DNA sequence: GCATAAACGAAGGCTGTCCCTCCGTTTGGT
DNA sequence: ACCAAACGGAGGGACAGCCTTCGTTTATGC
């Protein structure tokens, strides 16, 4: 969760302290619930988990779309922030990338980055805003991946889409399984996934199956990554 | 879907031809819907997707539990069957295992194998039956994995649980994304996952993080695999 | 401190969905 | 051709989620 003034989108009068705190709690709860149950989840449950009355949620986010939007933008901001920190502190591209993966999974952000885009596709207002945030993130991520591949640390037949989708699936907790188990499993799978991205995993024949998801700019996933 | 007489559990009079057909369609639909939405999904949607009236579903499966049970047993049967075929036709353990993974994912079975167990845990009636099927599958799978590891083709720090959970996550389609996209993504991720299991992926340091999920026989996942 | 505007939570009417049964109709098997 | 078996859909009851209204609480500026 980014600090900020909790008002990166429209210019509102400025929230009271408790209101700002509640707003962030709602976004955090929404992020978790959306990942677990999808964006159709009950808003009342989100409010409950945020420790907040349902009215408070509606006061801050007039409809479901507004809440989704807020979560997505917040996620994007976290990613950007973390990316900058990593680029300063890590020695090479591969380290930056791997660190980013770990953060994204641990913070449960992965899923929403891609997952929520389709819903926003309808909304002409903020679609541009979200699209811009996403485009900017990709503009930074792509050269990073290229670099790591040139370093010879990551396999060459991987695309950003592969990584993004992998994160999405990793991040989704399995329903009807205890949280602790889910966390343990996710961590383990993440390390497996990271290993699978490394150059040593490529068996020379390249990935079986088509490059999948590369094409079709009109698709949910936007232009080829 | 296994053929059989559609009556592997209790001894019923013998179903009419159309009834048997409908029964299988319901199971198939249930498998898909359960994977997508969890076992709390609407039974009416399952009936709809099976192209069958809601009454027909209830006639065959008196309650939700019965349906879940049927799906699980069916899945187990398919796995066993496929395993036997693969063991006859494939040259080594690794090939058998990989082939099995591909079948399980393509048939959308993966998720349910583990996913449904917790729900059944409550039910004293059929729990034993399911537990037996599962135990028998594991008894066959474990030596297979060991063999593949001895062959030096699969990394040594992998457990059956790792594989099972990997399959579960792979198999779950992402909500609000077109089916075609989901299929393409899943296929791609599966190949990545398979590569990650190979010995060449291990970087010598072993998997970061604890062996996770190995212990606690009282857990959802049963005894260590 | 205290006044006041901002923010809060909970109750409740409304709507839609899902569960499950009942019953008139259709269909497979002999 | 007969009839038991199987079918589908309508519909009542229950319930969960949406969103608003309203009386109460709390942060903030003087």
Task: Provide a descriptive summary of the structure in words.
Two copies of one chain form a homodimer. Chain A is mostly helical and 225 residues long. Chain A has two domains: 17-62, Arc Repressor Mutant, subunit A; 64-203 and 214-224, Tetracycline Repressor, domain 2 (Orthogonal Bundle), CATH 1.10.357. Helix content of chain A is 64%, strand content 0%. The first copy, chain A, is built from ten helices and no strands. Chain A has helices at 17-37, 43-50, 54-60, 64-89, 93-106, 110-115, 117-121, 124-150, 160-171, 179-197. In chain A, α4 (64-89) packs parallel to α8 (124-150), α5 (93-106) packs across α8 and α5 runs antiparallel to α10. Chain A is globular. Chain A starts with 16 loop residues before the first helix and ends in a 28-residue tail after the last helix. The model of chain A is unreliable at 4-9 and 211-225 (pLDDT under 50). At the A-B interface, α9 and α10 of A face α9 and α10 of B. The structure holds a DNA duplex (30 and 30 nucleotides).
Q: How would you concisely characterize the structure shown here?
A:
Chains A, B: This is TetR/AcrR family transcriptional regulator. In chain A, 64% of the residues lie in helices and 0% in strands.
Query: Helical segment tally of chain A?
Result: 10
Largest sheet descriptor of chain A: none
Name the CATH class of the largest domain in chain A: Mainly Alpha
Q: Quote the average pLDDT of chain A.
A: 80
Question: How many structural units, i.e. domains of chain A?
Answer: 2
Please tell me how large the radius of gyration of chain A is: 18 Å
Label the overall shape of chain A: globular
Number of strands of chain A: 0
Alpha-carbon distance between the termini of chain A?
26 Å
Task: Give the proportion of residues in helices of chain A.
Answer: 55-70%
| N to C succession of SSEs of chain A | HHHHHHHHHH
Which class of secondary structure composition applies to the elements of chain A?
mainly alpha
Largest interface: A-B, 46 and 45 residues
Return the CATH architecture of the largest domain in chain A.
Answer: Orthogonal Bundle
List segments of chain A where confidence is low: pLDDT < 50 over at least 5 consecutive residues: 4-9, 211-225
Question: CATH H level of the largest domain in chain A: which superfamily?
Answer: Tetracycline Repressor, domain 2
* CATH fold group of the largest domain in chain A: Tetracycline Repressor, domain 2
């Amino acid at each position: 969760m980014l600090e900020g003034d909790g008002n990166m989108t429209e210019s509102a009068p400025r929230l009271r302290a408790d209101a700002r705190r509640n707003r962030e709690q709602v976004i955090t709860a929404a992020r978790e619930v959306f990942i677990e149950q999808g964006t159709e989840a009950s808003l009342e449950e989100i409010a409950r988990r945020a420790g907040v009355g349902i009215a408070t949620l509606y006061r801050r986010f007039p409809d479901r779309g507004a809440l989704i939007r807020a979560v997505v933008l917040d996620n994007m901001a976290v990613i950007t922030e973390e990316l900058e920190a990593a680029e300063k502190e890590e020695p090479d591209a591969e380290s930056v990338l791997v660190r980013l993966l770990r953060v994204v999974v641990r913070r449960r952000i992965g899923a929403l980055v891609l997952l929520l885009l389709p819903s926003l596709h309808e909304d002409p207002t903020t679609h541009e805003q979200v699209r811009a945030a996403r485009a900017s993130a990709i503009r930074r991520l792509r050269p990073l991946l290229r670099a790591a591949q040139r370093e010879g640390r990551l396999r060459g037949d991987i695309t950003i889409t592969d990584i993004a989708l992998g994160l999405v699936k990793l991040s989704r907790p399995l329903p009807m399984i205890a949280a602790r188990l889910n966390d343990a499993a996710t961590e383990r799978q993440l390390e497996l996934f990271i290993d699978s991205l490394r150059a040593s995993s490529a068996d020379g024949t390249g990935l079986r199956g088509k490059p999948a998801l590369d094409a079709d700019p009109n698709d949910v996933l936007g232009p080829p990554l």
